[in-house]
Amino acid sequence: MTKETILIVDDEEDILELIKYNLKNGGYSILTAQSGEQAIKIAKQSRPDLIVLDLMLPGMDGLEVTRYLRSNEETRDMPIVMLTAKGEESDIITGLELGANDYISKPFSPKVLTARIRAIFRRRKKNTMEPADSIKQEGDLTIDRARHVVTIQGNTLDLTLSEFELLSFLADKKGWVFTRGQIVDAIRGENYAVTERSIDVVIVGLRKKLKNYASIIETVRGVGYRFKE
């Protein structure tokens, strides 16, 4: 069985070695980089299965790296787990808006980081195993789970993974109202440490991309969100 390859990006040698040691013990192949520029070069050349990316890097920081990777056809679908020393909500929200899949604040437990990474790989594996006819049609909106594509009148929307998973989840239970916590549990896994604000950010980004169809995602004041019946 082929090992998944993980690129670890951190300019602190001790942190880099700690993550490397734990992930190698977890059965993963490891690549490392200590700058944003080096990370982009390795990502394009080696195509890792996931990137653990520190936000506080010299020169090109982690948010700039995320922005570049998400805008490049070769790297746009690589899962990214952000590491943030500050743990500030603004950093987390910006990273998620740019398309990061997960985040963890320093100091962190290597076991928690490893568990988060395994959860991402499990979700991706589940998504690739969806049957070829796993397509949901809602008027002009089409959600193709097998291909991870959403189209409106045949035009493909450029959604992040979080936006796609959230839309798919709500569409599956059309008319049902879900709290932010329930949405997090559904698309990230139970006990995922995330601020409610980050779900709001994903919703805002999704609505912008839906444009004239933004109203299919309804806000239920004081409760959460639902897919319009």
Topology:
Elements (H helix, E strand, L loop, with lengths): L4 E5 L3 H13 L3 E5 L2 H11 L3 E5 L7 H10 L8 E5 L4 H10 L3 E4 L4 H19 L6 E4 L2 E4 L4 E4 L2 E2 L4 H12 L5 E2 H9 L7 H15 L6 E4 L3 E4 L2
Parallel strand pairs: 1-2, 1-3, 3-4, 4-5
Antiparallel strand pairs: 6-7, 7-8, 8-9, 10-12, 11-12
Helix pairs in contact: 2-3, 3-4, 4-8, 6-8
Question: How do you describe this structure in short?
Answer:
The protein has 8 helices and 12 strands.
Which percent range describes the beta-strand content? Answer: 15-25%
Uncertain regions spanning at least 5 consecutive residues: none
Number of helices: 8
CATH superfamily of the largest domain: Response regulator
CATH fold call of the largest domain: Rossmann fold
**Spatial strand sequence of the major β-sheet:** 2-1-3-4-5
Strand count, sense and barrel status of the largest sheet are:
5 strands, parallel
Residue-averaged pLDDT: 84
Through-space gap between termini: 44 Å
Q: What is the 3D form?
A: globular
Q: What is the CATH class designation of the largest domain?
A: Alpha Beta
Q: Provide the CATH architecture of the largest domain.
A: 3-Layer(aba) Sandwich
Q: What is the alpha-carbon Rg in Å?
A: 18 Å
N-to-C series of helices and strands:
EHEHEHEHEHEEEEHEHHEE
Helix coverage percent: 40-55%
- Count of folded domains: 2
Class by helix and strand content? alpha/beta
